[in-house]
Amino acid sequence: MAVYKLILGNYSFQVTDEGSGPPILMLHGFPDSARLWRYQIPALVGAGYRVIAPDQRGFGGSDKPQEIEAYGIAEVLGDVVALLDYLELERVGLVSHDWGAAVGWSLAAIYPERVEKHAALSVGHMTALWNAGIAQRRLAWYMLVFMRQGLAEDIITRQNWQFFSDLWGHHPELEHWIRDLSRPGALTAALNWYRANMDLDSWTEEGWQMPRISVPTMGIWSSGDMYLTESQMLGSGEFMDAPWRYERLEGATHWLMLDRPDSVNALLLDFLGADS
């Protein structure tokens, strides 16, 4: 597996790049890195694809600016476009999760000519997510904690990261997350994704408004996701001007690609290989 560093704009990024053939871009979210896709990359490469999985800004081996404004969706979307340009990839298949899905939906909405197909895991179209109402707000309560600069970092790390561990259900990936986020500046950088893209004033007002989607898209939601409602993924179909496919995966948490890798791999290979 090739892992390399490259400079895009003002920051250094770590990129996992393996295989040859049609390119697939994989975008992780919080609190992960490209390591999230460790069960999907071999399956996709084995099926004849080239997989490009960057550590997004603020995560993994990539730079971690401390300014909140560095993590606005427009900024991190610019990283993705710059990466595609650097690698001379005009068009890619796209697989995304969590905040990576927010970036993925944005890429498909604003630069549809760069996306062949998009598989969005857990997070739906951003307007559908916002329109999911109070049921979704209840599940996203922790974001209100994350918005509190300094205080959030203290709450999360006190008593040996107890709040963080409880919040994520003591997932088997927890030890790696804590080790990664314990590095200087890493936790603040990761939390800044939330701070840059939402605030307390807009919590109950009109939120994200995203264009309609003209790229064939598959949404996958897992029944054990404690942070996202099924309705926000199902509602994404209302914003599609291209084929839309929805898959519900039973018995997996928010990190479905880790909990049910074989099922996720089968869905991805079927969708990416099918005629639009």
CATH superfamily: Alpha/Beta hydrolase fold, catalytic domain
**And the CATH topology?**
Rossmann fold
Q: What percent strand?
A: 15-25%
Q: Please report the first level of CATH classification, the CATH class.
A: Alpha Beta
* Helix coverage percent: 25-40%
- Count up the domains: 1
Q: Give average pLDDT, whole number.
A: 95
Total number of β-strand segments? Answer: 8
Order of helices and strands: EEEHEHEHEHHHHHHEHEHH
End-to-end distance, in Å?
Answer: 30 Å
Major sheet details: 8 strands, mixed
Shape: globular
> For the CA atoms, what is the radius of gyration?
17 Å
User: Are there runs of 5+ residues with pLDDT below 50, and where?
Assistant: none
Could you give the order of strands across the largest sheet? 1-2-4-3-5-6-7-8
Q: Tally the helices.
A: 12
Estimated structural class: alpha/beta
